[in-house]
Structures are given as structure tokens and as C-alpha cells.
Specification:
Blueprint lengths: L8 H17 L5 H13 L3 H4 L13 H9 L6 H19 L2 H8 L10 H13 L7 H12 L1 H17 L5 H7 L1
Helix pairs in contact: 1-2, 1-9, 4-5, 5-7, 5-9, 7-8
């Protein structure tokens, strides 16, 4: 999986749109939170990151219900448990905020996630991940707690970020095919 370079145009686009939206439209001047959300958007450009959790057989976990069962099967208190809960929080926030229509389409299918409340599970998982507050997680723990407390507001903000990138006028040619 290729990771976007810190100066990659898409990373800069997400950082700028997220900062603009959260500060100007929502009045949230929280740089660590804004940076975390912009980084999440850049990270989830790669489907391998969006679906990075795997079961014991190596099959990717695509439903929150499966991810939660996987997390519950891990030893309590470990770094891996924290990372799984953080990922579930990110995953639920991404779909709730950026592509809520995807969740609506799931509600009509017969998959386990049609019974999962992404907001409730996202808040819960961010909270659980935030409880790992020792070094080296101390700084990120505060951001995860904020994401748990303000999940709905952050989802709304990400919806606004998506709206802004869809409304972008005359983006460079290499970005046009990605955002339209």
C-alpha cells in the first residue's frame, strides 16, 4: 500500500478543506482534531486501509459487526485492541460523515450491519481507544475522546468537507478525476 507523501496534493486538499470547514463553518479551532480528520481522509483513500482489519484466516473484515467481534476476541489492554477500536471509530465516522448514503443502502440489505448503529458504535469505540492514555498515546487519546464526545458534529463536518470538494471549481486535472 502506498502512503501519500505529506506534500501530496490530495493530502493538502483534505487538510485545507477540513481546516476551512471546521474553523469557518463550525467554529471548531482544534488543530489536533482537524489534523486527525484530514489524515483519516487521506489514509482511507486506499481501500487496503479502509478494510485493514483481518480475521484469523486473513479475510478482510468489511462489516462493523465482524470488527466488533474481532475486537472482543483480542486480549484486553493491548496495543492491538486499542488500534482495532480506533479503526472501528474511524471506519464508522468515515461512512457516517463522508458517505452516509452508503449506510442507507445497507439498511435495505440483509447484512449484519443493517442492525448496527454506526454512530453509537463509533462513539463507543473511540471512547474505548481513548482510555489508552499512556505514552505514546497520550496526545492522540485526547483527540479520540473528543471524537467520541462530538461524533455527530464531526460527521456533519465531514459531510460539509465532502460537499466542498464536490463543489471545487476547476481543480487540477489530476485531482478532477478523483473528486468528481
Amino acid at each position: 500500500m502506498a502512503v501519500l507523501h505529506p506534500t501530496h496534493p490530495l493530502r493538502r486538499l483534505f487538510a485545507g478543506l477540513t481546516e476551512q470547514t471546521f474553523i469557518t463553518e463550525l467554529g471548531i479551532g482544534d488543530p489536533p482534531l482537524i489534523d486527525y480528520l484530514a489524515e483519516m481522509l487521506a489514509r482511507f483513500l486506499h481501500v487496503d486501509q479502509l478494510y485493514r482489519l483481518r480475521d484469523a484466516r486473513g479475510r478482510r473484515l468489511e462489516e462493523v459487526g465482524e470488527m466488533l467481534l474481532h475486537a472482543q476476541g483480542l486480549p484486553a489492554g493491548g496495543r492491538t485492541t486499542r488500534e482495532v477500536y480506533r479503526h472501528i471509530g474511524d471506519y464508522t465516522l468515515f461512512w457516517t460523515g463522508v458517505f452516509p448514503e452508503h449506510l442507507e443502502s445497507q439498511r435495505t440489505g440483509w447484512i449484519r450491519d443493517c442492525f448496527v448503529d454506526y454512530t453509537t458504535q463509533g462513539k463507543r469505540c473511540y471512547y474505548l481507544a481513548s482510555t489508552y492514555s499512556d505514552e505514546p498515546y497520550e496526545e492522540e487519546s485526547a483527540v479520540l475522546r473528543r471524537l467520541s464526545d462530538d461524533f455527530e458534529l464531526c460527521a456533519f463536518g465531514l459531510r460539509r468537507v465532502r460537499h466542498e470538494w464536490e463543489q471545487a471549481q476547476d481543480p487540477p486535472a489530476h485531482l478532477r478525476r478523483l473528486i468528481h
